[in-house]
Amino acid sequence: MFVTLEGVEGCGKSTHLRLLSEWLAGRGIAHMVSREPGGTELGAAIRSLLLNPHREAVDPVCELLLYLADRRQHVMALLAPRLAAGELVICDRFSDATLAYQGWGRGLDLELVRRLNDLATGGLKPDLTLLLDCPPEQGLARARHRAEGLEAGAPREDRFEREEIEFHRRVRQGYLALAKSEPSRIRVIDSLGPVAEVQERLQAALKPALGLET
Fold it and tell me: Which of 65, 126, 165, 194 is buried most deeply by CB count within 10 Å?
C-alpha cells in the first residue's frame, strides 16, 4: 500500500510522519518511510538544488523538470520495488505536490504537468493521500519559528518559504481542488490544534485503509 502526506509549508508533515511511523511500529506493522525530493542518493543532490536559496532565479520549467527527475529515480529505484514486494510505504510528498506547487503555484499548464507526472511515475499513484491543511499564513509562521532553532550558519528559510504569500495561497487552493476532485483518495485533515489531536485525526483516517479497528 502506498500512502502519502501532503500540505503547504509548515503544515506539520515531517512531525506527523515521524509520529505515524512510531505508531505503526508500536502496532508491529512493518513499513518504509521516504520523502520527495530526496528519497534516493541522486534525489538528495536534487533536493539540495531545489530547496537551497540561489542568487539567480530558478525558471519554473527547470524547477518542474528537477522534481520529475527526482521522482523518476525515486519510483524506479525505491518505491516500485518495495511496493511490488508487498510493503507499506509512506512518503512525505509525491505527485500531488507537483500539481499544487508547479501547476497552481507557478502557473504552469496543469495538463502538461499531469502528463509529465505520469511519465515520471510510470502511472504509480498513492492508494491514500492525507492532506494536512492549514492557512498558509499559519504554516509559514510555524516554518519560520522552526528555522529559528537551526544551527548558526544554516539557511533560515528554504527557497519556497521565501515566496510571497499569494504563491502559498495558490498552492493551498490547488491542494484543495485536488482533494475535491478525488475525495476517495485524498483525505483533508485539519492540521491546526495540538499535535496529539492532529495525530489522532491522521490515525483515524489511516486505520480503515489498513484494516485496523477504529
Answer: 126
The distance in angstroms from the start CA to the end CA of the chain is 19
CB 104 within 8 A of CB 174: yes
Cβ atoms of residues 7 and 160 within 8 Å: no
Distances (CA, A) of 5 to 120, 122, 174: 19, 20, 15
3-state secondary structure of 132: strand
3-state DSSP assignment of residue 214: coil
Question: Are residues 126 and 187 in contact, defined by beta-carbon separation less than 8 angstroms?
Answer: no
Higher per-residue pLDDT: 9 or 147: 9
164: phi then psi, degrees, rounded to nearest 5: -65, 155
Tell me the three cell numbers of residue 102: 508547479
Q: What does the radius of gyration of the chain's CA atoms come to, in whole angstroms?
A: 17
Place of cell 495558490: 170
Domains (range + CATH), the chain:
2-210 (3.40.50.300)
In this structure, is the dihedral angle defined by the CA atoms of residues 86, 74, 105 and 133, taken in order, positive or negative?
Answer: positive
Q: Which residues pair with 92 in a beta bridge?
A: 5, 35
For the record, the C-alpha cell of 132 comes out as 494536512
Quick one: average pLDDT of 84-109? Answer: 97
Q: Is the pLDDT of residue 18 over 80?
A: yes
pTM surpassing 0.85?
A: yes
**Runs of H (alpha helix) within 27-160:** 41-51, 60-74, 80-84, 95-98, 110-121, 136-147
